[in-house]
Amino acid sequence: MLSTRFTDLLGIDHPIVQGGMQGVGLAPLAAAVSNAGGLGILTALTQPTPEDLRNEIRKTRELTDKPFGVNLTILPTINPVPYDEYVKVAVDEGITVIETAGRNPEPYMPLFKEHGVKVVHKCTSVRHALKAESVGVDAVSIDGFECAGHPGEDDIPGLVLIPATADQLKIPFIASGGFGDGRGLAAALALGADGINMGSRFLATVEAPIHDNVKQAIVDGTELDTILNFRPLRNTVRVHKNTVSTEAVEILNNGGKFEDVQHLVAGARGRKVFETGDIEAGQWTVGMVMGIIDDIPTCHDLITRIVTDAETIITDRLAGMLTAGAVARV
Fold it and tell me: Which UniProt keywords apply (predicted)?
C-alpha cells in the first residue's frame, strides 16, 4: 500500500482522486472510486438544485461507507448560482472533503474549518497554490498543461509544474493532468506530489455515467486528439478535437467573439455527447491522457492495477537500477 501525506489527511487507502467532472461526478462513479480505496467526488453543480445535491450525497452513502468528497467550482455565470446553498447542503450532510475550483475559497474557509471539512483547492500555477495555502486550504490539486478542461494560461506541463510546486508548497498536494496508469503515479510521487487526480481516465470505466461510444472514442483516441479552445479569450479549455470544437477554434482565431461560437460550445450540446454517444454533437472535455488509455475497466480493477504497477516500479524497477549501479561501481 502506498501511504502519503494525502492518504493520511483524508483517511483513504490509495493516493488516487477522481476529478470532479461536470455531468459525470454522480453517485455510482464516486462510490465505485471510494469503494476501490480512492477518493470519489460528486460534482455539486451537476445537480440542478442544492436539494438535488443533498439527494445525490445520500444516494452515494447508500453505495459506500468510505470517504467521498464534493466538488464546488465557483465561476462567473450568466445566471446566478446559489453557491452558498450548495455549500450549506454539503456541510449539513456531513461531507468531510470539499474540492474547490475557480474562485478563491477564502470566504467559505471559516465555515469549512468550523465543521472539520478538509479543503482541496484546484490550481494551475505555483502562485495560485501558494495563495490557496495562505488562506488555509488543507491540500492542493495542481493541474498541468496536459489536463482536460481548464489548464490555465501559463502552459506549464506537469514535469516542471509538479516539482516546482513541491519546492515551495508546505501542505500536501496531488498532481493532475496526463495521469492514467501506475507509471504516472510513480512519477508524480517521485516529482514530489502526494498522489494523483484523474478525470479522463475515469471517463473510460464501466461505472462512468456516459455513453459507451464516448468511452470507446477515448480508447481509440491518441494524445493528438485534443484541441485548445478559447485561447484568444484567455479562458483556455482542452477538449476533444471534433468538427464542432475545430470550427469554434477557427472562428475565434480569426477574430470572432464568444457570441459567434456560443451556439457551438453550449453546455447542452456537450451533455448530448455523453447522453447519446454522438461524439460530434458538441464540444466535450477530455485530456491528452487518451494516448495511454486502451481499455474500459471497472474502477476497482483500474485503481488496483495502477497502485500495483506503481509499487512494482518503485520497489523492483527503480530499486533494481540502484542495486545494479552499486554493483557496477564495486
Answer: Flavoprotein, FMN, Monooxygenase, Oxidoreductase
